[in-house]
Amino acid sequence: MAEPTGRGRDNVRRSALLFTPFFLAAAALEAYLAVEFAAGPRPGAIVGLVIVGVVTLLLGFESIQSVRDLVAQPVEIEDQISRKWSRTDAIFFQNWYVMVGGKVFRIEKIESDEVEEGDTARVRYYPHTMTVDDFERVRRKGTPAP
To answer: What is the pTM of this model?
Structure first.
């Protein structure tokens, strides 16, 4: 496999920079709401606590996984592509996915066009966010292993 492209590291860094400030702000808001609630419960305060709490948990999960990958080394897997598909996310964005070794990876369209189900692929990725650093088809379906 070629040297790391750095695209995975850049994506992990971008995720950490995006989610961490929002997580910290949501956690601060949750703490403020909890203190206000403890001082004197008001109607509707529980709803605010629950909604902000759920958002804080979701942002915290993404933030922590991204930060963990900033210090992690990429992991490599080589296995058969058992499934390949695409879907539109957030109404506008088309994304391409493959399942390799029971793990789901989002890949680029050009990489998706080069592989089929049954091909063998090698994927270098960050283990906590499953962010792909490098993706390569090793063998076509039906070609014997060397």
So the answer is: 0.78
Are 134 and 8 spatial neighbours (Cβ–Cβ below 8 Å)?
Answer: yes
Name the nearest CA neighbour of 101 among 117, 119, 77: 77
Q: Above 90 in pLDDT, residue 139?
A: no
Q: Name the token pair of 141.
A: 């379906």
What is the rounded distance in angstroms from the CA atom of residue 53 to the CA atom of residue 40? Answer: 19
Indicate the pLDDT class of residue 105, thresholds 50, 70 and 90: very high
CB 21 within 8 A of CB 139: no
Residues recorded for the chain: 146
What is the Cα–Cα distance from 1 to 125, expressed in whole angstroms? Answer: 12
Q: Identify which has the larger pLDDT, 6 or 77.
A: 77
End-to-end distance of the chain based on CA atoms, in angstroms? 16
Q: Which long-range contacts (CB under 8 A, 24 or more apart) does 108-111 make?
A: 108/135, 111/135
Q: Are 58 and 74 in contact (CB under 8 A)?
A: no
